[in-house]
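This week, look over our next protein:
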Amino acid sequence: MGVVTPPTAKAPKQDRSRATRQRLLEAAVACLAEVGWAGSTVTVVAERAGVSRGAAQHHFPTREDLFTAAVEYVAEERSQALRELPSQNRAAVVAALVDLYTGPLFRAALHLWVAASNEEQLRPRVTELEAKVGRETHRIAVRLLGADESRPGVRETVQGLLDMARGLGLANLLTDDAARRRRVVAQWAALVEKALG
């Protein structure tokens, strides 16, 4: 009789593979946020993740694969953070949305957007991903705000809030705009409350 390998024998290798993939994604996001697209090579990401370039390419055959997966990871992390927000007043929801768009996850996504504007092979992947993320974020925001989109202007109000949050995230790339941002967020929270009733 042959030796039967227990079903759990593969688990440690699969766990290591998942852990390596996770480290690569986190390192790619950190690199994009800190040094942008030009400085974020597969080699730099692999070094930061503590894995070989070969291991990185095993998981992500191309640079575009790696960074598209990193932005998908960022998007899921952003959506998960939104989904986990407790029911709270609308002002707190507005502030939480802005926090997501002014943090390092969004900074990494912005760098990828800029790269996609110049990289033909990357553009369709990022455009499709961001459209999906935008729809998901809008749905979550509607739920968190208790918005009734059957009322005229409500959909546009929610979308305007998200556009404003993205704009604040973009402004945050160049300077720490926290003091002005707090005032803008307070004003938007009041506008949203009035518009959504």
